[in-house]
Amino acid sequence: MSYRPDENILISWLYGELDEVEKAKVEKYFQENPDKLKEMQQLGGVKDTMSKIQDKEVIAPPIFMDGDIKVIPIWKTGYFRVVTTIAASFLLIIVFARLLSMNVSYSNSELRISFGERKKAGQQLTAMEVQKMIDDSSKKNQTELDAAIKQTLASNTQQINDLVRQASNASKADIRSFVTSLREQNATQMRDYLQLSATDQRKYTDNLVMEFSKYLQEQRNQDLNMFSTRFSKLEQNTDELTTQTEQILASIISSSPQIQQSSY
Amino acid sequence: MMHSDALIARAREGDKNAQGKLVQLWYKRIYNFSYKFFFDHDMAMEVSQKTFISMHKNIAHLNDLSRFRSWMYTIAVNYCREELRKNKNKRALSLSDLQPGLEREESYRWEESGARHENPERQLRQSELSDILQKCLMELSEEQREVVIMKEYEGLKFREIAEALNISENTVKSRMYYGLDGLKKILERNSITKETIGYEL
Question: N or C: which end of chain B has fewer CB within 10 A?
């Protein structure tokens, strides 16, 4: 079977990374297959051509790196704070539990959390005893309930009978007394009404008489005033007449000698 | 040798100077790995930054110092994949694609590099050829591209690549083989041969 190198071996040969034994095998293969050698030489030519790409010149820019190692105190680290917080919480719970005398116990699939002194557990009741207590209690309740119902029923019956009896006995006497009382009540009301009416009429008449007398008195006063005024006027007129008469007489008297002399 | 085990050990113990030295030693490699992977300056810078920040955070957990190189590329390739996923459906124009910006961006690198001592015309042609080949490289699948870059440009051994990508060595070799074969076809399609390159240069 002839040796035939794969592309991995061929590329290693091209870059000179084969060991001597493998290299000899490949070169022998090339002697037998010059086309393959030519192909590889072409690839070598490609290598040479591509090596003409030049490197770009570049200057490394200043890169500022934070090289200082920051020493963080342990009490400022997050882990420390978390642990401290948890521990403080537990401590707080323990202190409060101590102050409140908290007891936590677990037994027989029962978790008990209690505060204060723990009371001694009494005698444990059995299921039968509990059932018996429940039954007794139920019976007692039933008896009391029955008695209460009977008593209530009897009381209600008695009350109803009394009411019915009262209704049947209240026939004539009650009606009579009711009518009598109604009549008396009406009479009283009428009497009161009339009494009240007479009083009002008397008060009205009194007031009317008083008003009339006041009117008469007023009228008389006015008449008197009028007479007085008339008399005053009459007296005044009389005086005036007297005065005029006197004046006339005086004038007559004073003119009579002149008349006598003229007669002479 | 880019670094020594003692330097890595000091960095692992939190020595900021040692970590800074590792950044200085490794930045160009990680940047160029990312640049070849993306063919994009901004994304390469992003991945490089993230890679070294991750290195700083995680180097204390590196047990085997001899695996530092593959470990670094593991971080870088993971960030490359992450960036690729994020930008898969996002079409953005890189600032480096803008011609005036590119000129300014490249100027300091040119000043820093030894290339300024070479013939400027030759240097320009070399740069153009580099971009053409880079575009060919971008036509490879993501898996083949990362293997080709690690092997061809970063010089990792197949074992180290397998460690970095967490795959078997045979898978790495297989991807490499088919990657080179794919590149051969891409170059032929673009009429890029040894002769044309020689003419260009």
Answer: N
Comparing alpha-carbon positions, the chain A residue that sits nearest to B20 is A63
Give the gap in angstroms from C-alpha A75 to the nearest C-alpha of chain B: 25
Q: Which residues in chain A (10-39) have CB-CB distances under 8 A to chain B?
A: 10-12, 14-15, 17
Q: Return the HEC string of A171-218.
A: CHHHHHHHHHHHHHHHHHHHHHHHHHHHHHHHHHHHHHHHHHHHHHHH
- Report the C-alpha gap between A119 and A123 in whole angstroms: 12
Facing B56 at nearest CB: one of A17, A55, A65? A65
**Closest to B15 in 3D by CA, of A176, A17, A69:** A69
Tell me the pLDDT of chain A (264 aa) as tens digits: 578 888 899 999 999 888 899 999 999 999 999 999 999 999 999 988 888 888 888 888 776 655 555 566 777 778 888 999 999 999 998 898 888 888 888 887 888 888 877 666 666 778 888 999 999 999 999 999 999 999 999 999 999 998 888 777 766 777 788 888 899 999 999 988 888 888 888 899 899 999 999 999 999 999 999 999 999 999 999 999 999 999 999 988 888 765 555 544
Q: How far is CA B56 from CA A241, B19, B161, in A?
A: 159, 7, 22
Long-range (24+ apart) CB contacts under 8 A made by B18-26 are B19/A65, B19/A67, B19/B55, B19/B56, B19/B59, B20/A63, B22/B55, B23/A60, B23/A63, B23/B52, B23/B55, B24/A60, B26/B2, B26/B52, B26/B72
**Strand, coil or helix: A248:** helix
The ipTM value here is 0.78
| Beta carbons within 8 Å of B14's beta carbon, 6+ residues apart | A67, A69, B60
Tell me the C-alpha distance between A119 and A106, whole Å. 16
Interchain CB distance below 8 Å, B192 and A12:
no
The answer to whether the CB atoms of A46 and B184 lie below 8 A apart is: yes
- Tally Cβ neighbours within 10 Å of residue A199: 10
- Chain A residues closer than 8 Å to B201 by CB: 52
Residues from chain A that touch B16, judged by Cβ atoms under 8 A, are 65, 67
Rounded CA separation A195/A191 (Å): 6
Q: What distance in Å separates the CA atoms of residue B31 and residue B47, rounded to the nearest whole number?
A: 8
User: What token pair was written down for A158?
Assistant: 């008695």
